[in-house]
Amino acid sequence: MPDDSSREALSAASSVSRLKGVGPARERSLREAGVESIRDLLLTLPIRYEDRRLVTELGEVRGEGTYTVAGRLSGVSTVRLYRRRMTLVRATLEAGEASLPVAWFNRPYLGGSLNAEEEYLLHGRVRLRGQVLELLNPSLESRAKAGLGNRVVPVYPALGTVGPTLVRNLIGAALADGVLETVVETVPRALLERNHLPNLSSALHALQAPPEDSDVEQLNLRSTPSHARLVYGELLRHQAELALARRRVRDLRKSHTYVSLEQLRRTITARLPFRLTASQEKVLDEILGDLEGPAPMQRLLQGDVGCGKTVVAGVALAAAAENRLQAVLMAPTELLAEQHYRSLIELLGDGYGLRLVTSATGNTGVRDDLRSGRAAIAVGTHALLQDAVDFQRLGLVVVDEQHRFGVDQRRNLLDKGRRPDLLVMTATPIPRSLAMTLYGDLSLSVIDELPPGRVPVKTRVVPEEHRREAYLQVKEELDRGNRAFIVLPLIEESERVEAAAVEGLGRRLADRLSSYRPLVLHGRMAPEEKSATMEAFAKGDAQVLIATTLVEVGVDVSDATTMVIESAERFGLAQLHQLRGRVGRGERGSTCIAVHGRLTDDARRRLEIFETTTDGFALAEADLEIRGPGDLLGTRQSGVSNLRITDLAIHREWIETARRDARELVRQGSAEGASFLKRLEAETRRAAPLAGA
Question: Which of 38, 89, 134, 434 is the most buried (most CB within 10 A)?
Answer without folding.
Answer: 38
